[in-house]
Design brief:
Structural class: alpha/beta
Radius of gyration: 15 Å
Shape: globular
Helix content: 25-40%
Number of strands: 4
Order of helices and strands: HEEHEHEHH
Distance between the termini: 35 Å
Length: about 120
């Protein structure tokens, strides 16, 4: 809380990251001092992992906790055209895609598929 407040007082946008096993309740005491919540939809460590489906409900819970606050939800891990659409439907504002963009070499086609 202190670090997030310190950043915001200096005009810096502040964000927090929740790994798949981190419960949404950890946000309750800091939600008023964050600008972005990054939800990892895989366990961090390496690219090419599959999206953990249980994270869709977590995205929706974070969206509900945010309410009408101007806080962005970013989702990273296992994003492809299908999981990306599901994440956005659950409440994601920003998607991070690696393998879905670079796999096969046709970056333009892959990016268009994500949109």
């Amino acid at each position: 809380h202190r670090t997030l407040t310190h950043l915001q007082q200096r005009g810096v946008k502040a964000g927090v990251v929740l790994n798949p096993a981190t419960p949404v309740c950890v946000l309750e005491s800091i939600i008023d001092v964050v600008d972005m919540v990054l939800l990892m939809s895989v366990n961090p460590g390496f690219g090419g992992q599959s999206f953990i489906d249980s994270q869709l409900a977590k995205i929706a819970r974070v969206k509900e906790l945010i309410g009408d606050r101007d806080i962005k939800i970013e989702v990273d891990g296992g994003i492809n055209p299908m999981t990306g659409s599901e994440a956005v439907a659950a409440g994601a504002d920003i998607l991070v895609a690696g393998t879905a963009v670079f796999d096969g070499g046709d970056y333009r086609k892959n990016i268009l598929a994500l949109r």
